[in-house]
């Protein structure tokens, strides 16, 4: 694999926060954004605005919630997180169109892009077993 | 692709701030460093010292400014930024020798490596359309 | 290379701090963690708890210190650092099982995972020539 293959693969597999913000504003119905972070719910109560929440550990059992005709954008914690990559692997193997949001929620927050805080009523169950 | 292919591809396609600093001191004429960030000029007025400025959106029209006999080093904002990867793709497809500076200007600044601040007279035009 | 190949390669070549923490607790003898950072010793005196220290520049001469029956986990400074990738290349070419710890010691510290500070007596020699 040469350098061009490497960049092509990265650009096919990922989308930056800035590019996703622009693309989803231009065509909101084209995308489904999914927060695939695992871990205790209280550390995940801030999410990217508009994201569905499907922890990577539950993903294989919840494929029916994910549309095949949209581009699925996955994110986890940060650039060093592999959880979105694991989720992307599952979805790609099942025929979905998928990209990872680079930098996860950390890069998104650094850019001051909109997030949501789950209220207590809507709080996540704290029993994902991770 | 196995793990060795992956590391070989990354090492062929990228250079770290520390390695670029060392290499460009040893042989300054070997490299051309280009800031390919898009976006309003005022948010890009701090650049890596010595960098040429060619926004990625203008790159395809400005290839004549780039020498084929140097190693072209591209950077954008941060590790999660895909702008340098997009620019690298264009340059590689046009026969240039290219590497991405890992971590962009953010990693460079974290290392306290030298930057330049554009003065008002030399300010960038704020009309790149991005 | 398509997106699935890209994610498979990343997952084969790297392990996140969270995954390494969990895996090494479950089976401590399966892994050897190596700090491969180069540079003056005083800037490297904080290490990940339990790591062996073999600077990347010395690695080719110290392969006999590394077991072939363990999974070798390498780390350097941060996500933008290429030193662990260079070390991984050497080890993979010599038949070792290797992964890079994503995000290096910076991500590890951000997660408040345990580190060690070398005391003066145990201080690293400051003569690695880098």
From TrEMBL, chains A, B, C:
Protein name per its UniProtKB record: Rhodanese-related sulfurtransferase
Domain of life of the organism encoding this protein: Bacteria
Pfam families referenced in this protein's UniProt entry, alphabetically: Rhodanese
PANTHER family: FAD-DEPENDENT OXIDOREDUCTASE, OXIDOREDUCTASE
An example Gene Ontology molecular-function term: transferase activity
Entry keywords, A to Z: Transferase
Organism of origin: Terribacillus halophilus
Tagged with keyword Transferase: yes
């Amino acid at each position: 694999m040469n350098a061009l293959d490497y960049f092509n693969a990265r650009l096919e597999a990922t989308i930056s926060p800035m590019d996703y913000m622009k693309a989803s504003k231009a065509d909101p119905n084209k995308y489904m954004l999914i927060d695939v972070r695992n871990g205790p719910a209280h550390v995940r109560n801030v999410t990217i605005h508009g994201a569905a929440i499907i922890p990577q550990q539950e993903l294989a059992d919840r494929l029916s919630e994910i549309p095949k005709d949209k581009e699925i954008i996955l994110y986890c914690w940060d650039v060093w997180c592999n959880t979105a990559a694991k989720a992307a692997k599952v979805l790609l193997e099942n025929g979905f169109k998928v990209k990872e949001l680079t930098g996860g929620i950390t890069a998104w927050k650094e850019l001051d892009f909109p997030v949501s805080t789950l209220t207590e009523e809507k709080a996540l169950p704290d029993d994902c077993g991770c």
